[in-house]
Amino acid sequence: MKLIREEIESVEFIVEERNGKKSLYIEGIFLQGDIKNRNGRLYEMETLRKEVQRYNESNIVTGRALGELGHPDGPTVNLDRVSHKIVSLKENGNNFIGKAKILSTPMGQIASSLIGEGVKLGVSSRGIGSLIQRDGVNVVGNDFMLSTAADIVADPSAPDAFVEGIMEGKDWVWDGGILREAAARRTYKQINTLVDQKQLAEHKAQLFENFLNNL
Hints:
By secondary structure, this protein is α+β, with helices and mostly antiparallel strands. It is about 30% helix and about 40% strand.
């Protein structure tokens, strides 16, 4: 499976007040279906609908739908970089409209400061899945799984080479319930089969070199 990221610019930042306390939110289109995007990928609505339902039930309803500030280099959410919590994600035509609350974490405070200073920010969904070539379009497979519906990113109009970061070209696999980059997983398994310490000492340098060559 590949790491897949899509960036969207059309989001708004709104302030809501409740019981005298003001909160900052992101709101807008987080996901789009049945349309070829600028990265040459297409998400079928049925694929997105199924995954959004799972994401809502397992992440949003339980308060675990988090996003980061910036471009993470893998599919997992890093708690030390969390800046916001996604509170809703609803279907509207071929779009899924999301809303996220900016948190008072260190990264959330940075995001709030950037927004307050008028910096243009956007959102980037992040997930893993297979890609199927169909009539010159990369169709995202029905195994697609969201890591987060929205990271906060700067310069959403960056060239495709920036969006198609190096980690997007790597394969990710499930290993004991943990997502690992495939090359790292192979090396990890090889090392753990070398129970003899002398054998480990003889082979670990070569294994590490092979791992680096696969990056």
